[in-house]
Each structure stands twice: as structure tokens, then as C-alpha cells.
Amino acid sequence: MSENKSRREFISQSGKMVTACALFGATGSVAYAADNAKQTCETGKPMNITANHYYLDNVLLEAGFNFHGGVATSTRTELKTLEIEDGKIIALRENKSHADASLPHYDAGGKLMLPAMRDMHIHLDKTFYGGPWRSLNRPAGTTIQDMIRLEQKLLPELQPYTQERAEALIDLIQSKGSTIARSHCNIEPVSGLKNLENLQAVLSRRRAGFDCEIVAFPQHGLLLSHSEKLMREAMQAGAHYVGGLDPTSVDGAMEKSLDTMFQIALDYDKGVDIHLHETSPAGVAAVNYMVETVEKTPALKGKLTISHAFALATLNAQQVDELATRMAAQQVTIASTVPIGTLHMPLKQLRDKGVFVMTGTDSVIDHWSPYGLGDMLEKANLYAQLYIRPNEQTLSRALGIATGDVLPLNDNGERVWPKAQDDASFVLVDASCSAEAVARISPRTATFHKGNLVWGAVG
Fold this sequence. Notes:
Elements (H helix, E strand, L loop, with lengths): L1 H21 L11 H4 L15 E16 L2 E15 L2 E7 L10 E3 L4 E4 L1 E6 L21 H15 L3 H14 L2 E9 L7 H12 L5 E7 L10 H9 L4 E5 L8 H15 L2 E6 L4 H16 L7 E5 L8 H13 L3 E4 L10 H6 L3 E4 L16 H12 L4 H7 L1 H4 L18 E2 L2 E4 L4 H7 L3 E6 L2 E5 L3
Parallel strand pairs: 1-4, 6-7, 7-8, 8-9, 9-10, 10-11, 11-12, 12-13
Antiparallel strand pairs: 1-2, 2-3, 3-14, 5-15, 15-16, 16-17
Helix pairs in contact: 4-5, 6-7, 11-14, 12-14
């Protein structure tokens, strides 16, 4: 108990430290944020890089592992100059080597360059973030049906603030190094398509600095709230994924709920990303049914994401292995928030079996949870604390859950990122290497998306 308490305190304090600047952070390319940003920490001050071709000097890159007895014991680094043009890294050069002296150059200050992070499960369309503090006041025994009824009353109150609060959330996650996201968006009779329209308007404004997929999410039950027609309209309106929710405990008809979800996806050639919270045998049955459906339907291969998938925590190691082998073969993705508490998710076992596991914030602060920090490096740290033995190599590998498995070094310690023609999407971190960044949740100083400085500052 005391160990769990101290771990939670460490997580909370670490998150508060790296959140301090971000709460008032601004995107350098967005004019409306400039006034607020003047009050930020020094590393969060606004700054524009207007050139589409420039050099970035004093970038600390990982160069390899130092091995002792076949075990990576430390990480070698070197300072380099990046040449960036039209959103791409077109060359890695010797530090401060400028082939064209007429081009502008900026100074990364020796900060470590890591791949841009990816918040692959967030709800940008409904949040208290950016408004006054509100606690949850959820009594013990509150069910998901109770929460649906609460949300049906709350959504009309939140909807007028959807766009400004989504903007604030994007500022927050950019300040933590994320420039790619997948946002679930309520599609149900109370909201109609309004949340989708609001979110699309925000994402259109932020396109230069932020890429985001949208999941049409029938939060009140695909069948229970009779949302199939609205979901189909959302697909026509440009949503990227068909969402779903607990087909047994909410919809009360597992096969019909899942079949409806998959049919919408097939009809519009979309992917699927379902919220599956169920930990009863019904949750395991739902996972098996979905994997079987993909196995039988080649058009769905590589198009199924199961978010949360808490039922996997109820399986033994052999059962996980068998299911993970099938998932990997069908390119099924797991999106996990890396929960702490009673659930011990088999995330490492899934990754070891070749299942793609990604992470996300879920709620920053809303009627579901007040704890989210919007920080994928914190999620990598949680994953490392919960699931691996910490050493230089395993800590550096843990970063992959935050970056879509884009890592500076491969398992042999060879640099595989960045390379010429990679997107210039990265984060500068005050750390000596990936392992330290994960272990210490190191502060971020600047975030770039396709060559655009979207948060922070360089010299």
C-alpha cells in the first residue's frame, strides 16, 4: 500500500512539474495565443520560425549504445545541425555546418531531440480544461449508465465552449511534445453532429501544427441511443474511424452491436476504434468476437483498434499469448492509457508478441476523470515503472509507446531516426538520452511539427 502511495505521489509531482509551463503555453504560429504566452515560463515563450528552409544547430542526437558484456549500459550522443526544408529533415550535418550561409539558423541549445509524441486516445470535444475547476462528485457504485445519464444533462452546458477548450487542450499536449493525436468525438442524439463540426473547425485552424484523426464515438451506446444513422452521417461528414462502446454492458447485445459497428466501417471504408471497458467474461468474449470478425473479413485487417481492453487483464499469460498471436497476425492495435490501480494490463506481453500498443490521455479533466496531464512521456514513464526492469536499453525502448514506436536507436544501438526525408516533427527535451527522458519525465523546451515551431523556443 505504501509503495503504491509513494509511486502515485511521484507520478503526481512529476506531472505537476512538467505541467507548470504548459498550462499557459502557446503555439508559436497562432497569433491569438500571443498575449497569454507573454506570461509563460521562459521555455514557453512564443516564437515564430517563418522560414521554410533553415538550419537548427546544437541538436543533441543519440548515436549508439555503449555495451558491457552484451548489455547496453549507457547512450552515446553527439551534437549535429539539422537542415530543414518544406517540413522535412533534408540533411544531418556536422554541428554548425551551414552549406548555404544565407539561410537562417537557430540554436537548439544542446537539448535532446526525440520523435514527436502521439496522443492516440483523447476527447478534445468535451472537457472542463480551460474553464473553472470542477470536481467529479461521483458516489461509490456509479455505473456507466449513470454516467451516460449525467452526460446527457451536461453536454448542452459544455457545447458552447467546445472550440475554445479544444484549442486549449491542443496547446497543452503540444507543450508536452505531441503533434499527432486521435480524438474521440461524441456522436449521439444529444450532440448530434455539432461536436464533430466544432472539432473539425478547430482542427482546420490548427492544421499547420497538429495532425488529428477523429473517431465518431457513440458515447451513449450505438444501439441504446439509436445512433446508427448519426454515425453514418458522421462518416459522410469526414470522421476517420467508427467508434463503439461496451457492447454487452451498455448495448445489451454484443454481436448485434459489434456487427453494426463493423458494417458501418465496411460501408464507408473506415477503421474501427472501440472503447471496451468490460472486465467480465463478456469483455473477453467481445475481444474474441472482434478478432474472429477481422480474421474472417480481410477488408478489416489492420483497421481495428481496441481502446482500454481491460478484459485482457483478466487472462492468464498463456491466454494472452494465444490471443496476442492472433491480434498481431491481423494487425489489431491496442490503445491503453496505462492504468494504475487494480488492473495489471499485459502491455509488455502484447508488445513482445508483436501487437502494436499505443497510448493516450483519455480525459484531461472532465466528468470522467480529473487526472490527465496530456503528457505521453509520463505515459512512457508509467509503462516503464509498471512493466519493465529499468535499464538503459529497456527504458529507451519504453519511449516507443509514446511515439508510435519511432525510436532514435534500434535494439542494436544503430541510429535509425532521424534520417533524411523524415518529417521534421520532433520535441527538444532537457535530458541526456531517451532513457533519462523516460525515467525522469524530463522537461520539454520546444515542439516542432513538419518544420513549424508550435510550442516553446529555440535560440
